[in-house]
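Pentatricopeptide repeat-containing protein At1g62670, mitochondrial-like, pasting as requested.
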Amino acid sequence: MKNMALGFRVLWTVRKSYRGRLQLPNPHHSCFSKHSHSNSNSNADPFLLKLLQVPNSRIKTTLDQEMPSILSSQLSWDSLVSSLSRSSSDKAQLVLEWILEKMLKENENDYNLFPKLILLCGKVKNVALGMRVFTSMEANGVQPNSLAFNSLISVCLSSHDVVTALSLFEIMVSSESYKPDFHTYNIFISAFSKSGNVDAMLAWYSAKKAAGLGPDLQMFESLISGCINSRKFDIADRIFEEMMISEIVPNASILACILKGICWQKSLDRAEEFFKFVMDSRWEINENMADKLVALYQEQGQVEKMEKLLETMTKSCAVASGVLSRIHCGIVRMYAILDRLDEVEFAVGRMLKQGFSFTSADDVEKVICSYFRREAYDRLDIFLECLKRCYVLEKSTYDLLISGYRRARLHEKLDSVMEDLKSVGLA
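Structure tokens follow.
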């Protein structure tokens, strides 16, 4: 009880100091419906298009008429409400009201469905409707639980109604049947993380620990991203250390966030050290992380250091091919910017020999520009011949070649490129 009282005092401090800084999307992602599939292509669903076309006054009637097709549709309620809310929050709200009416009419008593419907109310940022679902659940004989309270708190926070969210938390604290669980605290931590209110986020973190609830990956992801995005780098480092002590393996999102913070501080040595630490730990390195590190190398003009990193990465079995490709392209790009054509050609040859190719037209065009600046037109021909074996040139690249050959008055080469352009159907 002492720990809980301490945590509660911390939360009251947060409540008093809150000044409406919460700006965030709904932190939960849920799919309501026993018949839904969340991976559907909502843009092509004819039922969604029909709802977008009918007036608001016909929404519920249309839902009644289309009930059989709704149940067999590949469109989930989550996708439907999300898509509708982007065009018309009123229509999305009417859909939610219709779902609630059907559940009450059928005397629905599945305690999982009501919290899912409450969460959908967050998509239209309608606390009143969420409350209505909550009270309807009780009226239908379904006893509220922590999941229902957590869903309602999430709706409040997504609607920027922090006071009501805190009031619901207080009810949970004083109850016997639906005490706050680790999800409850994570919802608040995530909300204040996304709003940039680091003090409130850390207060909820302290309160969670005071309540005797253990750490988890979702919590650390919210804490670290909140600190990094608010440029509280020292705090982010401390929390990362706490995660290591807790023996929780960071996911790619956390690792990318830490690396982003290091790159923002322009510390190449630390960025390299962290990147190698991640490799040695055999954790996931994604292309986003590689792009951040390559950008820092390029900003500081350290292509030789990038060469050493590539050598280390090539020996590792834990690095994905997409990441290696990003490093290869980064090295080629830097040599091209520096007009070091010998190194460009060596780097391109090495990349192709190892089974990689360019990942963007921009990098290809930087190499071409370097050849043009050096007036190395015969060498450019060889580069293009090698490139065409494994890479399809884009229209912008053909335009660059045409412009360059025209300025150089190389009419024969210009005609050849124009023919190539026609043959691939881009003319």
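Note for the archive: The two ends are 76 Å apart (CA to CA).
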